[in-house]
Design a protein that fits this description.
Two copies of one chain form a homodimer. Chain A is an alpha/beta fold. Helix content of chain A is 38%, strand content 20%. In chain A, strand 2, helix 2 (35-47) and strand 3 (50-55) form a beta-alpha-beta unit. Chain A starts with a strand and ends in a 5-residue tail after the last strand.
Chain lengths: 283, 283
């Protein structure tokens, strides 16, 4: 495994592999890897000839009041984990190379970027789209792997790829959870033991939604109401949003259908956590 | 020469040529070709193995009050001209394929897009950047050729390419002029004979600027003042802007230097025309 820190070297390496007809898989991450990331890495290893994992805490996707500086980083631990998985290249660029002085260009997926997480994180998805488009141009992947935990991100990036005619296929893989149900996230490290217990309410509320749906409930006001009430019982939790939307336009739906996205964001203390579920109706 | 009208076919053809190691040249146009375009085509032919000319009147770069519908089109005449030059492929997509229902993704080069032409054409450069990025993804050119008549466009696209790490080199080629000095433009067809005579004032004012510079004048307020006065003498002309800016930030400069851009936009009747000159100081 090789760690590459400059854009020209990464481009040159990729050109070499592409000229040999090898397929490239990219797993874009912000590092501080967990089992959720590793599931993406394994999928990339399986599906493509050359696996590139990028590690870059992308400043443009953080708001001024957000946790860019505090975001956990540990390149040595990350590298060791990736080496063990047989990854070929880690792309680990510097912020000043990705966004040199005078940087001006941004990509936006209108409408979708203002909904759900976009409402409380203005500019976040513009930063995500911009850095991912840049990574796609540098690494030229055939397949790029993202986690379904960031459901809105996966939907927006899929739309960006189709709209801009990019030659990459976006693969979204299921949420990986801790044994108690908490969705894996690098931000879980922010939680105190007490907060970590409180954070289980996100997954529990989704489980309650699933129970209601399995019993035939289709009215989203009823389901979301129960979820909100359950989260409301948790003193350390403060709801950002709990919504049921279609996965094309991210517009709220009144009645659940196959493929409806139930998504939520909840502050546990100062830490904002997200979780979600795609509804599959039994037939 | 083959005319290709669908995105998947264009992509497939390009993949074939790229896998053979051939270099690709792209000349993006809105059609109704003139000698300015043909100079780009000849440069592409000379510099690359496979030349693709795109013809697409891009709706997203026209404002609601602008001339999208009236813009001149003649695919048969254009094809004949390109065939004669030995072009390999004409890419001639439909608007509904480039921007399908529900299209949402746009690329912007902030700051630069609001200046000069951007002030009177809000959204114009967003449309240009978006369509050119799409064409770059579809055609995967090694080199793309643009005219210096659209100086701001060439500067913005160069910036987009660098910022987004695109694997294409932007080549900008000199303005081609009619014998009387009028810069070639598809929009010149809008002009009545009387207006066409009046339109010469753009090039004449640049010539006057050059004369002053050759005589040692460096103060832009003096030079631009003379240009404005000269254009003001022409009853059919109405100034949109006359400016002297640096080519990095497009910010007005008080004193001319090597490489300063003197650019102007002038309405002749209802037709908005542009012209410009890059200052080269004698040593």
């Amino acid at each position: 495994m090789k760690i590459i820190t400059t854009i020209p070297e990464m481009k040159a390496v990729i050109r070499g592999h592409r000229s040999q007809g090898r397929t490239i898989g990219l797993v874009p991450t912000m590092g501080f890897l967990h089992e959720g990331h590793m599931s993406l890495v394994r999928a990339a290893r399986k599906k493509t000839d050359v696996t590139v994992v990028s590690i870059f805490v992308n400043p443009t996707q953080f708001g001024p009041e957000e946790d860019f500086k505090a975001y956990p980083r540990d390149i040595n631990r990350d590298s060791a984990m990736l080496e063990k998985e047989g990854v070929d290249f880690v792309f680990y660029p510097e912020a000043g190379d990705m966004y040199p002085k005078g940087y001006k260009t941004y990509v936006e997926v209108h409408d979708l970027e203002d909904k759900l997480c976009g409402r409380s994180r203005p500019g976040h998805f513009r930063g995500v789209c911009t850095v991912v488009l840049k990574l796609f141009q540098i690494v030229e992947p055939d397949f790029a792997f993202f986690g379904e935990k960031d459901a809105q991100q996966a939907i927006i990036l899929g739309k960006m790829v189709r709209d801009l005619n990019l030659g990459v296929q976006v693969v979204a893989l299921p949420i990986v959870r801790e044994p108690e149900g908490l969705a894996m996230s690098s931000r879980n490290t922010y939680l105190s033991p007490e907060e970590r217990r409180a954070a289980l309410v996100l997954a529990k509320s989704l489980k309650e939604a699933k129970r209601l749906i399995d019993h035939g409930e289709r009215r989203t006001d009823v389901i979301l109401g129960k979820m909100r009430a359950m989260i409301g019982q948790e003193p350390l939790a403060r709801i950002d949003y709990v919504e049921a939307v279609d996965t094309e336009e991210l517009e709220p739906v009144k009645e659940l259908g196959e493929g409806t996205l139930i998504a939520l964001a909840v502050y546990i203390g100062k830490t904002r956590l997200i979780d979600n579920m795609i509804v599959h109706l039994e037939r």
